[in-house]
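Researcher: Here's the sequence for the chain we discussed earlier.
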Amino acid sequence: MKRLTVVFLSLTAGAAHAQSPGEPEVRRAVPVGLSQPDASPEVRRAEPVDPATYPNPEWMNRVPVAVPVEPPVEPAAEPPVPVQTPMPVATPIPIATPLPYRPAPVAPAAAEAAPEAEPPASEPESGDEGGIRFAPDPGYSSRNRSLMAGNGFYRRKMYDMAVIEYEKYLISEPQGEGRDGAMFRLAESQRFLGNDRAAREGYQRLLGEFRDGDFVGAGAYRLGEILYASGSYGPALAMFEKAGDHAAGDEVRLTARYYVANCLAKTGKDQKALEAFEKIADVEGDNPYREDARFYIAAARMKAGDKAGAFDAYEALAGDANGDARRAEAAVKAAALAVDLKKPDDARRLFQAVLSNPEAGEWQGVARLGLIRLDYDAGEFKKIGGLSGQDLAGIPEASLPEVLLMKGNALKETGDSEGALAVYSELVGKYPDSDAAAQARFRKLVLANAAGGEDMLKEIDAFLAVSTSPTERSQAFLLKAETLFAAGKYQEAADLYAKVIQSRLPKRLLEQALFKLGWCYAQLGDAGTAAATYTDFLAKYPDSDMKVRALAQRALAYQQGKDYDAALKDFDQLIAGPKDLKERELALQQKALILGQQEKYDEMAEGFSRLLQEYPGTPGAAQAYFWMGWAAFEKKDYPAATESLKKARALDEKQFGDRATLRILLADYYAENRDAVTAEVEKLDAARVPSEVMVWLGSQYFNEGNYARTVQFLKPLADRDPSVPVSPDVFISLARAQIAQGDFASAEGPVSRYLATAKDPATRARGLLASARIAIGQGELAQADKLIDESLLLQPEGKLNAEARVLSGEILMKRGQYDEAARAFVTVAVLYDDPEIAPGALKRAAEAYRKAGNTFEADKALKELRERFPNPGENKPATALRGD
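Model: Thanks. This is the structure I predict for it:
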């Protein structure tokens, strides 16, 4: 069977159209190579594509090698596989087009015939009908019945029976004279039975046991076929070389050499492969591989860069190859090379020769396509734009997308934008998966971007899904990165910018992409990479208009990464610049902040003061005042701190309100300005106020008898998370203030928490007395008696003892036992000369005597009160916050 191959033609190249000098700069990133809708680009003839712009050598895309067919066990035709060719920007490079099939010689099926000493049987051998005979004939031998039987079965294609007999023979005759033949035919029988693994092992055993002989060559050939079919070209090469060395005839030897050449090509040994094919091409006479070898040699010259030599070789094949189809193939390849060599006349001549060849078949359509490409490259845009359906008759279907693309581009070049858009839309609609459709999408994409179209990401992704042009893909990636950047999707944008800067886009676009890549890294918190990116930018583009911005952003990245020395160096460079630079104002501000980070507070304050002097309207004024106030606060210059902090709060309440207020109240606290502290505390969430301040305020108001204020400042402390330590004195003072207000129910909780921590007699007695006051307030006099008795046991003397006795008198008053209550109050006044207890006790004694009707004793108690305490104050509780 013959295998069909395909070849593809790529004949055009493009030249980018530059923006007109007077054209205003468009801020949106417009891919290079397409003029603006209102621009009038210069129409130029397309130049050949620079091979350096392609990832593979150009000859791989333009003129595929005429590679000899790989002979499988059962050769079959293979369909053509199109090769996609990258397209430059300015002009549409035609899509790689499948060309007509060309036949290639296939190594005939292997046979096993070469006469042995005895004459062969009359019937043909299995697998040898018209094939190449490369193995000795399985003749009969009188030495062994199994061998004779095996040979008989083998001749009659009874391979399953032959296997049995050959195995018997090989076991019984380890040194038998016909052992090599038996081993070969055993392997062959396994192969015919479909036992591929057993066959391969059989050939390997043969080659392992024997080093020479006809059967060694036959076995090596068979094993080479197996290895070649599995893609093991290196081992196959060794087998075919051995087969050639031991071949029984020239025909087998030539076939083996042909496969050796192919294996060398497959394993990348191009020079040796070329030498091998040259030797094959030199073989005259009956040589089915000569033409394949010549095609390979021509392709090898192309690969080596010898386009002129390749052109001569293909042109020669176009004149004397076997068959019109192969001559047409060679002519098309020669014409493609003529385009590369800038020989349009030769290219036209060769294409015309194919058109005039009635047996060229599908190659004629390819030649017609080549002529259209030549017209396009020659700038015949009116001719191309006027192509009709009749003009396209005969063009291969696979090439129609390319032709439509050229037509659309031609219409655009002639100024017919609407016509071009219609053709692009037709192309995308009819051939959505073609490379030409991708090119059309790109041109539509550029127009949409210039017009600010919606759904840009969808359009870009649709283009990238089918585009193969490196330049246009890079520009599409840039468009997508810009769109993502604008949407704040910095990680996705960074990935694309990093890809774009590795491309070959114009300098201004690469400059923009690199700058924004650094910005993305900074937004993502990767300060080190951001700084390195801006350093790269400053090195690559020292004269850029964005140089100052890049320097500022690098300084900020250093600052973000806490490399303060590097950041200060960049900021100082900016500060030394012109005063009207926006980045200079930023540099002053950030330098002051860095000095604060370095705990150089005086220098920080000076820096912010300079910022306010040179830029009084700076947006950073609130920040400057805050940190100036903060620095004054740290120096304990509280008046200056308060003044600056209040300015910061007034300028930016949202950012600096709570932070400034906290320091203002602390400054007032240190100055013991209670009313000012109270005003500032009321501006803050109580949870943010330091406990010391709240305790101090509660103590102040408790001592003056302002129990509502006491509760206001102490209750938030008591309500905080129980895991946060709070002084027990807070609970007892809060309870006393609540008791004084008659809020006995609320006082129970603080008293319980106080008693839970009371360990010594005095603190426990204080808590018991508070509980007794709550019980009295709630009418539980018996419970109050018990609590007072326990307190008296704990404190047999002292102020707490006096307070317990006073409470006993209060209980007697509640019960109407006024005489007993009066005596209890008088006892306290006699035993304790405390100005906080005795005056109240005498006053309560006078009240009790009066209620009992004993006005004499009541007047006596008041007289004693006036004499002992001429200026008695209100009977207030002791200052529990001080631990009394």
